[in-house]
Amino acid sequence: xxxxHKNEQSSLEGMGDDELSPGHMIARVSAVAVKLVFPxxxxxxxxxxxxxxxxxPLEDGSVMVVASDGHRIIIVRDPNGYAEREVIVRVDKDALxxxxxxxHTLDVMSRGMAMFSGEVAQPLFIQPGNSxxxxxxxxxxxxLSTTGYREGVSGAVNPTYLTDALVIAKSFGNSIRFYxxxxxxxxxxxxxxxxxxxxxGGIMKRRDNFDVLPGWFPRPSAPDSLYEM
Length: 229
Description:
Layout: H1 3-15, H2 17-20, E1 25-30, H3 31-37, E2 53-57, E3 63-68, E4 72-78, E5 82-83, E6 87-89, E7 105-109, E8 114-117, E9 123-126, E10 150-151, E11 156-157, H4 159-172, E12 175-180, E13 187-192, E14 198-203, E15 205-206
Antiparallel strand pairs: 1-5, 1-7, 2-3, 2-6, 3-4, 4-14, 7-8, 8-9, 10-12, 11-15, 12-13, 13-14
């Protein structure tokens, strides 16, 4: 090893690990889970923490991936995920083209690097800059509930948000079920057909000025013999 190389090596060693590496992995979740929740994340919201996805460890060792724009919430439980701690991560839309394979993952490093990785952990897409978002993500358990709900739909719901839930179900799962509690509580939904992943979400109700069937609709009359129904 020549003197120049030795000097370069000494200089690199003097920089320390923090300056040379992205740090250690603090979260790894299914790329499909990320793609599934992405449509529910906020876009350019002043509540900056809603512009990312929340990755949160659960007590059973699994991980949940959450997104919300304040009007709807979607949560995916990844039983094979890993999270050293709770984080909020920015996800680039361009990266989602690598998120359709069930064996791909989103890997988040302690110094803010986030990348989508392939089946053998090779980087497929490395997001530029620091992908970690400082802030406190809303406690979804204070907004959604599984208590007192029954299957069905009731209350006024934004049709766009309802359509978005149906589109996600069509794209990722084989079925969707809706659950309701009262006129004000969120309309909850559960997706099936996601393999190891589990999906639970909610759509906030709207206050509207109609709540009964129309009184002007004609009452039934005696059936006509030619058009008996």
